[in-house]
Write a structure and sequence with these properties.
- By secondary structure, the protein is mainly beta.
- It has one domain: OB fold (Dihydrolipoamide Acetyltransferase, E2P) (Beta Barrel).
- The chain is about 0% helix and about 45% strand.
- The protein has no helices and 10 strands.
- It has a 5-stranded antiparallel β-sheet, with no helix packed on it.
Length: about 110
């Protein structure tokens, strides 16, 4: 699917409800399924930067600001977080495995 922030591959929530080509759909990715990575993947990755973050010991919550003409704020949750807080203003990518991207039809 082509979205405002990039191309995504995923699975239909209902296999029998395949949308027509060009139809509008909703792409759903749970916050804990997004990962921060330093290099882009061919699909399912969005360029941006870590904005605000909250650290809860075993879990960190990030606000990830996407790059581009229509920036979005994505929310990420990371179990056993790495040290991304020092890379706060550095370019990163939010990535999701295709099996974690769910396509919802209207």
């Amino acid at each position: 699917m082509r979205t405002a922030v990039g191309d995504f591959q995923g699975a239909l929530a209902e296999a029998s409800a395949a949308p027509a080509a060009g139809a509008r759909v909703t792409v759903s990715i749970r916050p804990e399924c997004l990962r921060l990575v330093e290099a882009p993947a061919e699909e399912n990755s969005v360029a941006g930067r870590v904005g605000r973050f909250t650290y809860f010991g075993e879990v960190a919550h990030y606000e990830f600001q996407t790059d581009g003409p229509a920036p979005l704020t994505l929310r990420l949750s990371e179990l056993n977080p790495r040290e991304w807080t020092s890379a706060r203003d550095q370019p990163l990518y939010a990535y999701a495995d295709p099996e974690d991207v769910v396509v919802l039809t209207a």
